[in-house]
Amino acid sequence: MALPPHTTPSRDPAPSTGLRRDLEILDLLAQPEHAARGLGVSRIARLLDREKSQVSRALKVMEAEALVDRDPDSLEFRLGWRLYSLAARTTEARLTRTAGPYLRRLVAGLNETTHLCVLRGSAVLTLLSVSPSHAFRGLGWEGVTVPVLMTSAGRVLVSDWAPDTLRSWAASWLDEPGHAQARLRIQAADDLLREVAAIRRRGYASVDEEFEAGLVGVSAPVRDFRGTIVAAINVSAPKARLGPHLDEAGRRTLAVARELSAELGHEHAPGVV
Asked: Which residues contact residue 271 at a Cβ distance below 8 angstroms, ignoring those fewer than 6 apart?
């Protein structure tokens, strides 16, 4: 039957596109019961009620783009590194945008420069710095990385790691040439465990001339909706200026970090640091 002129066949307003089908596979692989062990092609096809050949072709394309990884032994698929990389960048972009007003409020209360820091391997990366209007513009810390154990921010960022993980990681780091330094309070793995226990009790970390002579600092954790530490708010300043008020600065930093965490969806339990 011919169609009337100037008309087109009706279409499903929400067609099942190739992208949607790919997202269904990724959503399936992301489910908690599948994320760790992965799924094979046949199992994915069965769970999604799809043709095995169609699923196989889609997975090959996604594997080439690192959206999924295939275990060479089990031949099962898991989410790929590229997805995690994109998610991390997206989270950090939102985190940086959201944190700005909180850092500015902390600057107004302490009259000192504040930083938003995240963990990058065995180093601390500064994503954002906010300084008082009168501050001297010296070294810019944004984009700069520093060793974890030398900073209060780094110690906060690893403070929810399991004891065995902390012990093995610290021992490995301290064994590397040039890492152990006389001014560090942490000279052995057990020192880090004691430091982390103190951070958990009071809610923030402090360093006194450990990173640099004449410099002190405090940091408190920022948590997301899962309760995971995703960043640290840091305040650093010359000891002559901030040293006498270091504990007060730590408590203020903790209060602001908790408010930022609440905006990210974390529900702080009373009595829990």
From this structure: none
Domain range list for the chain:
18-79, 84-263
**Superfamily of domain covering 84-263:** GAF domain (3.30.450.40)
Class in CATH terms, 18-79: mainly alpha
Residue ranges of alpha helices (H) inside the chain are: 18-30, 32-35, 41-48, 52-64, 81-110, 152-157, 163-175, 189-202, 239-242, 246-263
**Tens-place pLDDT, residues 80-94:** 888 877 766 677 778
pLDDT digits (tens, 9 = 90+) for 133-192: 765 444 566 777 888 888 999 999 999 999 999 998 888 877 766 555 657 788 888 989
Cβ(27)–Cβ(47) under 8 Å?
A: no
How many Å apart are CA 153 and CA 222, to the nearest integer? 11
